Amino acid sequence: MSVKITAPNKEIKTFRSLPASKSLSNRALIIRALCKESFKIKNLSTSDDTSILAASLKNLNNQIIDVGAAGTAMRFLTAYLSLVPGERIITGSKRMKQRPIHELVKILRELGANIEYFEKEDYPPLKITGNDLTAKPVNVKGNISSQYISALLMIAPYLNADFTLTIKDKILSKDYIWMTIKLMQKFGIDIEWNSDKIYVKKGEYKPEEIIIEADWSSASYWFEIVSLSENAMIELTGLKRNSLQGDSVLTDLYKTLGVDSAFTNFGLRIKNIPITCKFFEYDFTDCPDLAQTLTATLIAKKTPFKLTGLDNLSIKETDRIKALVIEFEKLGIHIKTESNNSIFWDGNENIKVPENHFVETYEDHRMALAFAPLSIITKNMEIKNPEVVTKSYPDYWNNLEEAGFGISCK
Question: pTM score > 0.85 for this model?
Answer without folding.
Answer: yes
